[in-house]
Structures are given as C-alpha cells and as structure tokens.
C-alpha cells in the first residue's frame, strides 16, 4: 500500500427520522464532516426529515501511522434561511480504529448523539467509511473558514450509486459510540502486541556455564471434586527467560533483566545457512554434477535437495542443531554428487564449534561467506561454498523456517516442511442469506401441465433446497430463507437451479442462475436487502433464432446478502475463543494480551513403533480466535522440549484458549498409523479465570477418553500470562451480551446453528489443510469439539450430577431449616427465633442483612479462591466409573455400525433414561399448571375457595400490621414438634388437589 496516496472515503448516504426544527414539522438538513483538520459539507435537503444525499468525500491522511488516534466527526444541522444560521440536529463520532479497507466497507446507520445533556436529538445517519489508496482519486476541496457562514456552499463531491430511500429507512440501532470521553481507549499495547504473529525473543544469548536445574514441583492441585492425584494439576517454579517463576511472579536476576522472551526456557542452537556453491568440479562423464549438501555434526545430519546438472547451484536452506544434544566439536559441511548407486564425494568444509560466533539480536543477521572446498585430507580443491554458521536461540529470525534436528538423526529438507513451526490465520467467515421469493414465467418441459417447481441452492459442497410448490400457475411463490457459510476470499459462486419434479425420483432443470459471492451485498445489521430479478439461463444450448422469437424469459426473484452482524460459530459454544461479529466495523478495541509459552511435555505414551521400540513424533497446536499456531515437531522423543512463545490479542474475557498435543503420523509407518495425526490430549484455559499479570506455570495432565476408559497420555508444561491493556473496557464487557446483537434480533434455530457450525468447521479445516505444513482435518475437528453435541450416556449422567450439585446448597438450607423446625438444637433454634423476630420487627433491615451476609461470605471465600485455572476432571466427567458398553456406544460411528441386537439393547436403555427425564419434566410442568389453576376456574369450587381466602386475607392484612402476620407465620413454621402432625398440611393438600392439564394428554 502506497501511504502517500492513502485517503479516507466517507459516503454520506442519508438520514432517517430527524427532529423537526423549522416550526412547520420539518427540517432542512445538511451534514458537516470533520477529520484531520479538514471539513466538508453536503448539500441542503429542504423540508425532509429522512433526507438522502449519496455524496462521497475524500480526506487526505497526513500521517497514516497516527490513523488509529484520529476521529471522524459528523454533525447534522438544520439550515435556518431567514437568519442565515443553523440549529443542531445530532452528531456521531467514529474512531480511527474502526476504519476498514474499501473491500470490507458496508453502509452502517449510526444513532445520533447529543452535543450536551440539554440537546434534543432523534434519528440516525447512514455512512459508509473506508480507507482507499487509489492514486487516481483526488481529495475533495475542504471548506475554508471564510465560507463558514455560507451554508449553501458545498465541496466537490464524487457521485456514488443511488440508494433508494427504503434502504435508509430500514435500519437497526446497534452501534454505541466508542468515542465518548468516558469510553476512550488507552494507548495501543506495547510493541509485543503489534507483532502477535511472531514469537517473543530473548536478548541474552550467552551459553550458560552451568546447567540450569529442572523445574521444581511446589504444589499439586486437584479440582473441586476429588480425583486421583496423578490426574491433578501441578504448579511448578521453573527458570524461564525472565527469571525464576515463584508464586506466579517472575523473580528477575541481573543477567536476565530486560528479557522480552520470558515465558520459555532459553535453548541454544547451532545454525548453518547453506546459500549456494560455484565452480564445482565435474563428476560425471557428461562433464556435469548433481550436487546436494550434507551438514553433519556427530550423529546428526541434514540434507538439502539435489539439483540436477548444475555446477553453480543455489539452496538457501537453514539447519538448526540443538546445542544440548551435540556431542561433537567439529561441524562438517559436505558437498556430494547424487548418483544411482553410490553418491560421490565432491568436497567439504570443517568448522571448530569453539570458534563459531554467537549472535545476539537485535544484531543484524550474520553475513554468509565463501569457503573453499577441501578434500578428505584437508587439501584445497576446486569449488567454493557460501555458508553462514552461528550460535543463537529461539530469538533468531531463522528459527521458524529452519530444519530442526531435535531428535532426528537424518531427515532431508523435503520432510522438514512437516516438522516446522507455523502460524495460521483462519479465514474470515460470513453467513450467506438467500431469500428465494418467487419465479416468473417458468416453462416446463411438458407444455400441458404446470411445473412442480423447487429451487436448489449450492455454494461449494453446501446444498439446500426449497419446498416444492404445486401451484396452478407458472409463477410459483416460495419466500424461503436459506443459510450458508462462506469464507474470504470468496472462491465459490452461488448457484441457484430451478428444477421441475416430473415424476417421483425424476427432476428436470428449468434454468440456472450463477452469482459470484464477491458481488453480493454485505450488511452489518438487519436492514432490508433489496430484491432483484435474475434471468434463468437455459441448461442446454438452444437455437439463437428461436431465443430471439421468445418474448419473455423465465426469471427468479431473490434477496441475497452477506450477513456480517453475526459471529459465525465454528467451534463449540461452551469453548468459544472468539465472539466478535464478522463485520470489522463492529469490532471493539482489544482489552488485553494473552501470552503462551509451550515449554515441554513429559511422560508421553508411545504412539508408534520405530526400530523395535515405542516412540512419538509430537507437536502442539494452540487455538485462540482466528489465529492458530503449531510448534515444530520433536521427532522420536517421549519428553520433548518445545520452548516456543506466542501472543494473541484478547477481545473478550469469556473466551477459551485451547492447546492440543498430536502425534505426527506422516513421519512414521503409514501402514500401522494410517494417514491421520493421532490425538494425545488437550488443555482448555478460560481467560476470565486468569489474574492479570500473573504467570501461570502449571503442568497439565493430558487426559483422553479411549474405548477402554480414561487414560493419562502424559503431561504438558505451559506458561501463561494475561495482561490487561484497558481495565475499563474489560469491565464494560461484562455488561454486554455474549454474542453480537444480530443473534438476538434475528436468532437462528437450533437446527440451523448445528448445520451452519458443521459447515463452518469443514471450511476452516479445508483452508488450513491447504497450508504448508497442513493443519489436518482431524486436528481442526478435535480442537473445535465437533462431536460435543452427540449423545453420550456418560455425558448425560455427568450433566445430571452437575444439576444435582447446583441444588446441593438449596437442599442444605432446607435440611438446616428442617432441623430448626424440629428443634434438634435448642440453642440454635432459639437464636434463629430471636433473629427472625428482630427482622420482622424491623423489616427495613431484611435486605441490608441479606446483602451484608453475602458480602461476608464472599470475603470469607476469598481466602479459599482458586490459585490455578480449572482443568479436566475425570470424576466430574463420569469417566472413572463409566460402563464399558457405554464407552463403546460413545465411540460408535454416526449412523451406528453395531449389530441390530446391540442397537436394540441400547435403544431400550435410552428409552428408560428418557422416560425418567420425561417424568421429571412432566412433574415440573404439573406444578406450574396447578399454580395457573388457582384462578382459572377449572375447578370452580377450588377457585371459589381460593378467591374467598384472598378476600379474607386482604381484609386481615389491611387491619393487621405486616410484622404481626410475618411473626405468626414464621413461629408457626418453626413450631415445636410436639405441635406437629405427620400428615401434610392443609395448604399442601389443597394445592395437590388442584387440576393440571395431564387429563388432556393422550
């Protein structure tokens, strides 16, 4: 983007429902725009409370780096012609952080705001604001101060497409002003935030003179429900790049002060960059050479690809060897000639590791040098090799793209792409709403009948159909909404096919419409989308002369839009990592920064067999928002050390970070492991459970449910820190709806949400699977919990016991009150009576006493607050005591692949469980219907008794103080057992005799 051509485009579309100010029930309004010291003004629309301008202005941006600090102000005034003055009608303010490129811009209708508390405003203003860098567009001419009094003057405008007034009228008030003084955001986060796509790197690169001690386990945590200690969380106190972590705080040392890559342990690597060679000697009879380079140090080696028949080859490949695994002191870089039987030796270069320089960023990268090749005896020969050799850490710019030797004895660069670390960005998803209204002049294949028509709509692999319409006309009417998911950039077209059902199972195509998604209108609210007629294309080629003779053509009436006001759900709603709407104009500034350090894993289970022993080739995947990260694959290691750090911007505290561990099956025996990466386990961390600024260094057990039961596959050591950049914005988030406003204004059905979520996961998996290295579909599905909605007897029991635990407090209060009523402890009962009579005598103390009691409980519980993020609980999940058949049912395919006898047994069991649930739900409904029957006269005698009781109670309460009535009721409820009866009380008997609607059930 050429910054000198950068301009801010503002299209003033129109206003709606303005306040009348001319004394005649109308206003003559115009708009003034202010941005970066420039001011523009629209024309005046006389006597119109819903004016339409459709005028576009272009502002110069003097300093694009400060764009996020600028604001656009728009004022609407009423022109008073008699006095050549103006009166205020409203204003809006748009922050620079909300400006988007032209391709993302849509028309938004902003509610007008007051200038002061005494202002009276009404209505809204429709604007389209975007950034454009087209050098052919000239800036508009701003208004000078001398022309301020001339309200009829206006600046140069660029014509925009006409928008009908109905579009301006159909608006949705959804945009609060983010630029009020009390809502101004703080300065952008530190530089780390602006580089969230990269890792934080350390500055201290010196090799430690003594080995660092291993992390010390200082505390073990178990969740609220007791489970085995081996499944519990472990808090550690490791040495990281910033110092030792003790109690969530980093204790810095002098030599580590100022470190920015402080959430992982520092690891040293020997980097070797093989750039190119020149004037290599000929090795074949043809006078040429097929060279490749082999970098060797001890038992480790890396191999470049070979280049055919080239004496001046170029590779530009970087190899990284872990310093702690090197057991040699000499590095050899050998050039070889590729041959069918045995590769020929060409020449080599040797380096003493004690002489290799140390590189400390932000120093510039080490410049490669030409080295003369030598033979095996050390004598110089023909040919030179350009190399750069240095020692660095994860901070090095070459680290992400380097081939890593961590545990691989010999892997070439072709396989290195499968083990590199990678940062992925999931595509931005849109909901596509297609409203099929009607068709006109449909011509069936048989002229003697009316068509039995329906419309099939397709986007990529997504296909939906309208209901068939059997109408006695050639103009069928559907008026159905069909919803799809699409991802940017839009690669698929929207294809609509009108088909005629000629016979059962036989359909014939009448016509087709193809609409590119890039041409579909975007909207960020629920404004009305204007319909369009599309001509149906014939499915086969026809005679042009015959086509000219036809007077009419078949047409299809549609409303199509890209809905940007929704958040496209592509993961389980319980573990969402992002809740923002699709339209970037609706995004709010971030509230903080999340930093994750993936340290290591220990005690991993072998996932494959190599050379007769069990091993694993594991990597970690972390997902938060649109950003996915993947660490490098540590080959052949059951205790891998990753030590990679990543950052994310946080927009909502009610989101979840998910970290999964997988085995890279594509490096092993495909015959035994298949082509799917195997899951080792995952960790979920909710951002709202993290204290600001605290470093959480815990070892998380990797728990996976297998068909044989729950298993611990190892432990994953993480370092996590959440830093809040705007405390006011974070507190404001707690008052906002969880999902964007469109989810509540025009909600989807449960069936639609499930279908759209399935489509969204498939699209994300397909896009990420096209990256290099690919993030495979099984990884995306496991991280997104795609099967969380499927039936499971284990989950059903777990949810039932969760529900019971919620009511445990109520049951405990009821039991305590029952003990009071039965006088089991006379002293406690007397004290409760005294407290009760005090509250009855002074009823104004009841609510203060309740709130004070809750305050004291909260203060008391502060001592026992959780000091660690919650983790998987096997007891809560009912994974410890689950029956083997229930596990087999949970891991069964959908639809089932089991025998009919087994399915029959499970179906009968499901019916019994569902019967108990049905009974409970019916009992709750019965109690509610009995309450309704009190005054519905379904039982006339019962209703007459209750109405008479209400009259008597009203008279008694009118002449009797409330304190006396409350005291009598309370003392009666807590009366001594000597005055009690074993039979139910009269009110309970009366209530249970009331009729319910069960009599009407079939």
TrEMBL record:
Function as written in the Swiss-Prot or TrEMBL entry: May function as a signaling molecule by regulating the trafficking of other regulators.
Chain segments annotated as transmembrane: 800-818, 830-860, 944-972
Record field: compositional bias (Low complexity): 176-186
Membrane disposition: Multi-pass membrane protein
Record domain C2: where: 1-110, 251-371, 410-534, 575-700
Predominant location: membrane
Pfam families: C2 (PF00168), PRT_C (PF08372)
One annotated Gene Ontology cellular component of this protein: membrane
Cellular localisation: Membrane
Superkingdom as given in the UniProt entry: Eukaryota
Classification of source organism: Eukaryota, Viridiplantae, Streptophyta, Embryophyta, Tracheophyta
Region (Disordered): 171-195
Protein name per the record: Multiple C2 and transmembrane domain-containing protein 1
Organism: Nicotiana sylvestris (Wood tobacco)
């Amino acid at each position: 983007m050429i910054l000198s051509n950068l301009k801010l485009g503002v299209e003033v579309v129109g206003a709606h429902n303005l306040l009348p100010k001319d004394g005649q029930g109308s206003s003559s309004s115009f708009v003034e725009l202010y941005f970066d010291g420039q001011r523009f003004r629209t024309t005046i629309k006389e006597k119109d409370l819903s004016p339409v301008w459709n005028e576009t202005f272009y502002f110069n941006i003097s300093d694009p780096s400060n764009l996020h600090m600028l604001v656009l102000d728009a004022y609407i005034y009423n022109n008073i012609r008699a006095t050549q003055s103006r009166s205020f009608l409203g204003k809006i303010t748009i922050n620079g952080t909300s400006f988007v490129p032209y391709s993302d811009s849509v028309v938004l209708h902003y509610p007008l705001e007051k200038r002061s508390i005494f202002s009276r405003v009404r209505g809204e203003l429709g604007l389209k604001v975007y950034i454009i860098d087209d050098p052919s567009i000239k800036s508009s001419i701003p208004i000078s101060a001398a022309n301020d009094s001339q309200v009829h003057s206006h600046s140069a405008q660029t014509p925009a497409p006409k928008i009908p007034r109905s579009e301006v009228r159909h608006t949705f008030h959804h945009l609060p002003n983010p630029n009020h003084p009390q809502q101004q955001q703080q300065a952008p986060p530190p530089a780390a935030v602006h580089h969230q796509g990269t890792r934080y790197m350390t500055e201290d690169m010196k090799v430690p003179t003594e080995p660092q001690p291993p992390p010390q386990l200082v505390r073990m945590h178990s969740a609220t429900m007791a489970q085995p200690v081996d499944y519990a969380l472990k808090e550690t106190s490791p040495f990281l790049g910033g110092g030792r972590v003790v109690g969530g705080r980093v204790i810095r040392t002098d030599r580590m002060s100022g470190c920015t890559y402080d959430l992982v342990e520092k690891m040293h690597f020997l980097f070797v960059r093989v750039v190119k060679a020149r004037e290599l000697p000929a090795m074949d009879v043809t006078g040429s050479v097929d060279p490749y380079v082999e970098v060797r140090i001890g038992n480790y080696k890396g191999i470049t690809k070979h280049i055919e028949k080239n004496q001046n080859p170029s590779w530009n490949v970087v190899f990284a060897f872990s310093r702690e695994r090197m057991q040699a002191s000499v590095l050899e870089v050998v050039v070889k000639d590729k041959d069918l039987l045995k590769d020929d030796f060409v020449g080599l270069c040797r380096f003493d590791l004690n002489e290799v320089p140390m590189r400390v960023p932000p120093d510039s990268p080490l410049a490669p040098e030409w080295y003369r090749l030598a033979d095996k005896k050390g004598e110089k020969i023909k040919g030179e090799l350009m190399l750069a050799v240095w020692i660095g850490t994860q901070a090095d710019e070459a680290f992400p793209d380097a081939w890593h030797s961590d545990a691989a004895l010999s892997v070439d660069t072709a396989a290195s792409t499968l083990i590199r670390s990678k940062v992925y960005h999931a595509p931005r998803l849109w909901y596509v709403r297609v409203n099929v209204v009607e068709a006109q002049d449909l011509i069936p294949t048989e002229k003697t009948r009316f068509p039995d028509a329906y419309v099939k709509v397709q986007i990529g692999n997504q296909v939906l159909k309208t209901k068939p319409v059997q109408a006695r006309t050639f103009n069928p009417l559907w008026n159905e909404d069909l919803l799809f998911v699409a991802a940017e950039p839009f690669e698929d077209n929207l294809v609509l096919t009108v088909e005629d059902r000629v016979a059962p199972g036989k359909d014939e195509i009448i016509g087709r419409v193809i609409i590119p998604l890039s041409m579909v209108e975007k909207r960020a609210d629920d404004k009305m989308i204007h319909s369009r007629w599309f001509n149906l294309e014939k499915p086969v080629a026809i005679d042009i002369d015959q086509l000219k003779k036809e007077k009419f053509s078949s047409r299809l009436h549609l409303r199509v839009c890209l809905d940007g006001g929704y958040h496209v759900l592509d993961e389980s709603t319980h573990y969402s990592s992002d809740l923002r709407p699709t339209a970037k104009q609706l995004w709010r500034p971030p509230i903080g920064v999340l930093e994750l350090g993936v340290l290591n894993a220990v005690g991993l289970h072998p996932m494959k067999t190599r050379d007769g022993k069990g091993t694993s080739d594991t990597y970690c995947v972390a997902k938060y928002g649109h950003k996915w990260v993947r660490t490098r694959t540590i080959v052949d290691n059951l205790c891998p050390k990753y030590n990679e750090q990543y950052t994310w911007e946080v927009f909502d505290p009610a989101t979840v970070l998910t970290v999964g561990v997988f085995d890279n099956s594509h490096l092993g025996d495909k015959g035994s492991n298949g082509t799917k990466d195997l899951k080792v386990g995952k960790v979920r961390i909710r951002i709202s459970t993290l204290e600001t600024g605290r470093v959480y260094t815990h070892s998380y057990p990797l728990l996976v449910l297998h068909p044989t039961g729950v298993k611990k596959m190892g432990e994953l050591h993480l370092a996590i820190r959440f830093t809040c950049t705007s405390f006011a914005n974070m507190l404001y988030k707690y008052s906002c709806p969880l999902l964007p406003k469109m989810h509540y204004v025009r909600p989807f059905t449960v069936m639609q949400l499930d279908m759209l979520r399935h489509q969204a996961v498939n699209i994300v998996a397909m896009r990420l699977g096209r990256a290099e290295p690919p993030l495979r579909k099984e990884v995306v599905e496991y991280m997104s919990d795609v099967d969380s909605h499927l039936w499971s007897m284990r989950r059903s029991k777990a949810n039932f016991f969760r529900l019971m635990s919620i009511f445990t407090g109520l049951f405990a209060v009821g039991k305590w009150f029952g003990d009071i009523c039965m006088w089991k402890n006379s002293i406690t009962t007397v004290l409760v009576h005294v407290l009760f009579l005090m509250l009855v005598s002074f009823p104004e103390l009841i609510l203060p006493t309740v709130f004070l009691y809750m305050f004291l409980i909260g203060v008391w519980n502060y001592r026992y607050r959780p000091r660690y993020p919650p983790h998987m609980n096997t007891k809560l999940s009912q994974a410890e005591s689950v029956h083997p058949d229930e596990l087999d049912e949970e891991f069964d395919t959908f639809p089932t692949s089991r025998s009919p006898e087994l399915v029959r047994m499970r179906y009968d069991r499901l019916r019994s469980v569902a019967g108990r649930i049905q009974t409970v739900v019916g009992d709750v409904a019965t109690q509610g219907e009995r309450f309704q029957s009190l005054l519905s006269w379904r039982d006339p005698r019962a209703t007459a008794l209750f109405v008479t009781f209400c009259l008597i109670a009203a008279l008694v309460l009118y002449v009797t103080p409330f304190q006396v009535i409350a005291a009598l009721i309370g003392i009666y409820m807590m009366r001594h057992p000597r005055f009690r009866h074993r039979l139910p009380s009269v009110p309970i008997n009366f209530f249970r005799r009331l009729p319910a609607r069960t009599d009407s059930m079939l």
